[in-house]
Amino acid sequence: MQKIGGDKVKRALLASTALGLLLCTGYAHSSVTLYGVVDSNIEYVNKLTNASGASGSVVRNSGGGFASNRWGVRGVEDLGGGLKGIFTVEGGFNVDTGTQFNANKLYDRQTFVGVSSDEYGQLTFGRQYSTIFRALANFSPSAYAPMYEPLSFLLGMNLRNDNSVNYVIQRGSIGARLHWTFGNGVFGAGETPGEIRANAGYGASLEYSAGEFGASIAYDQFYPTLTTLGDNGIGNFRKAAIGAGYNLGKFRFSGGYRWGRNEFSNGSVALRDDFLWFGVNYQVAPKVNLMLAYYYDKLHTLRAQYNGAELDRPNPYQVSFMASYDFSKRTNVYLTTAYSKNVALAFGGLATTAASGAYLLGAGKSSQVGAALGIRHIF
Asked: Which residues form the Porin domain (predicted)?
């Protein structure tokens, strides 16, 4: 068989090889990683209401029972002298429908760029998690499992902040975090000309971890515009929390306390509460893990609207249980269940803000049960 254009093919191969070597040399100290989580389950919930007012039980295909569905890209470039350039772009999606989790934001989870120094810490800019979210992450018994964890109620709807600057530094067993947001758009508006305080916020934390014990203390302050609650001014939402955890053989004990006070622009209290949680994790076998957690909220004051009457309702609580089996480091199956009293699952419908959550109790109901059997894969 006659070869056609053999010399041209050889020259093209040599050129492409040389270009590849040049690119590899130029980016030898850089890396970009595509990653994500796909989590799907079959869920049962009773006493659930919907927008039309109907109430009853439902069986459905849901996502994010063990971990939130997401995909992202992160990268790092070694700049020399212990300094690195870093970035992360990450978005959530609904595995059951293939749609974006947040219809208005493609990369709703986090998008930031910054620098990291071995000596001076890490400074980043963009949409990022709040300081209090990071500070308490190691002391959530379910590791912030999204299906029944009362996360938004615990940390507030500003657990992610638009337009934020975050700083993190670690010195041995002691770590510190700071953040400032110029305008979080969680209530529809971000940075506001002429009003530097509108939708702005900040937070700080100290964290300790050594051996089998860890603890953290954190503070968060947020100034949301509250037009959705009939308030034409700027509110003042404050939270302070402490969390701790201890490993004892196959057991891990963790828990914490969060103080909260949300005020309308006129100073009247929208929500004043004390939130507590405690949990136990037990590794039955190398591939089998169990979790039992209890969440309780002491309600002091609750108002649903600006200048509204104070609501009188019993203190809510929830008990959660999870079991998982690991096929590998990346794939596992799980069962997650929860029972709530005086509130919907994940404390849905209790908060006086958009943090009401996906679960709402039917009229005249005071408790709710949910259970889901699913599979999660990490890539």
From this structure: 15-342
